[in-house]
Every structure is written in structure tokens, then in C-alpha cells.
Amino acid sequence: MTDTPEQHGPIRTTRRGYVLEVTLDRPKANAIDLETSRIMGAVFTEFRDDPDLRVAIVTGAGEKFFCPGWDLKAAADGDAVDGDYGVGGFGGLQELRGLNKPVIAAVNGICCGGGLELALSADIILAADHASFALPEIRSGTVADAASIKLPKRIPYHIAMEMLFTGRWIDAEEAARWGMINRIVPGAELMAQAREMADLLASGPPLVYAAIKEVVREAEGMSFQDTLNKITKSQFETVERLYRSDDQLEGARAFAEKRDPVWTGK
């Protein structure tokens, strides 16, 4: 059942069971200014902290733009590039601490600059067949800071550096070829497939997802052995919560009884 959408300024949210859909709806291009970023941070913080929500989808309104990133017109009117983006940093996702729930980006069109950084903050990226991607900051004499950190770890180094150095655009097919996105979807089917993926994840074990996300996040700055030692020494809160949970027992019981498990997140 789909609940009535709620409007938070330029952000529209819809709760659908365990899934929260977050739509950036800021004509004409879904660009993000400081106020929008702060609202997005508040929305994703509420998602993180709500035990009744398990998965989020982030997308853009319309069929042309997912998000072009920073609103240069707002910057020209006084928004400081180093201003207060709110909790979670730019777009509310990339610096949000403790976000241990799956996030799906449904890229419905142009995705560039900070918009690409927003998509890269998700765990799974589905893209419409007409979507396109770029990091054009080089042309305005600035640096795509988050993308400079993330992109060379997600796709081949030389391809990432070419995008950062030249600002060239790539289409969805090339993005998929380099592994930047999970799959290409016909534009008319994008949200249906994103919802199907979200429902699949929402039916899974939330405590396991939380453990996976914390381990993956922490392992990024640690050696394999140090990360493994941290797991075996019970130093990951989410892993320990999982091992002490009813869901851990439910998984074993369901397997033994040859039935589907019923996950409660407890």
C-alpha cells in the first residue's frame, strides 16, 4: 500500500511499507542548494532512525534530470560553496553517520557533478536507458571532491581520472560497462524496477544489512586482517547485535524447518 506523499519543500517523500521513496523535485533541473541539502539530510536522518523503514529509494522528478549537483544560480545569489549543507553533508547522504540501511538510486536522467556524487552514495544504482553521467567541475575551475575520493575506487582508475580531468559525458551503456551502475532499465520501467529491488531488500534481514554496511564502510580504511580481527574481537556493534538477535535464531530455525524466515529486526 502506498501512503500519501509528503512534501518537504523541494523534497517529496512517500512511505510504502518498509520502503521510503525520496524524490528531489526542484524545477527546472533538480539542482541542490544549501536549503535543499539540509532538508535532504533531515529526511535521510529520519529514515536512518525509523525502525519501521528498511530501504530507501532516491530519485529525481521528471524524466530529464536526476540531479546536476550544486545550484550555481543559488551560489551566484549568495549560497556559499562551503556553507552549511546540514547533517549528512551535500545531499544528505554521503557523510551521514551510521546509515546502515540499503539505499537505491534510481537515476532518471542527467546525473552530473554533485548529482553523481549523490548517486555514488547509494548502495545500488539503477539507471534509465537515457541517463547520462559526468563530472564537469573541471570546466568551472573547481574540484569534484567526493567523486575524487570515491570514483577511482568504484571504476577503473584511468577511466575515473579521465572523467575528472576532462569532464566528459558518458551514457548509461558506458557507465554499466565500467561498473558504475548496476543495470540499465527502460525509462518507463525505472521506478517499477527500483521498487521491485527495494521490496526484495525489505523482505530480507535488516540486521544483516546493517552489519554488512558497517563492515564494508570500516574496511575501506583498514587492512583485510585488521578488519577481520575487529570482527572476531566483537568490535563491530552491528555484528554483535546480529549475533545476539532473535533474527539470528530465526534464520537457523527457518532453515531447519524448511520455511521462509520472518525477519523482525530484533
Explain what this protein looks like in three dimensions.
By secondary structure, the protein is α/β, with parallel strands linked by helices. It has two domains: 6-202, 2-enoyl-CoA Hydratase, Chain A, domain 1, CATH 3.90.226.10; 206-256. Helix content is 41%, strand content 17%. It has eleven helices and eleven strands. The chain has helices at 34-49, 72-76, 114-120, 145-154, 157-166, 172-177, 190-202, 206-219, 224-232, 237-243, 246-256; strands at residues 6-8, 11-16, 19-24, 55-60, 65-67, 103-107, 110-112, 124-128, 132-134, 170-171, 183-185. The strands form two sheets. It has a seven-stranded mixed sheet, with helices on both faces. Strand 1 (6-8) and strand 2 (11-16) form a beta hairpin. The radius of gyration is 19 Å and the shape is globular. The model has no long low-confidence stretch (mean pLDDT 93).
- The CATH H-level superfamily of the largest domain is 2-enoyl-CoA Hydratase, Chain A, domain 1
Straight-line N-to-C gap: 24 Å
User: β content, as a range?
Assistant: 15-25%
* Lateral arrangement of strands in the main beta sheet: 1-2-3-4-6-8-11
CATH topology of the largest domain: 2-enoyl-CoA Hydratase, Chain A, domain 1
Give the H and E element order.
Answer: EEEHEEHEEHEEHHEHEHHHHH
Count of strand segments = 11
- Shape estimate: globular
The low-confidence runs, each spanning 5 or more residues with pLDDT under 50, are none
Major sheet: 7 strands, mixed
CATH architecture of the largest domain: Alpha-Beta Complex
Q: Could you say how many structural domains there are in total?
A: 2
Overall average residue pLDDT: 93
Helix share, percent: 40-55%
Count helical runs. Answer: 11
CATH class of the largest domain: Alpha Beta
- Rg is 19 Å
Structural class of the secondary structure composition? alpha/beta
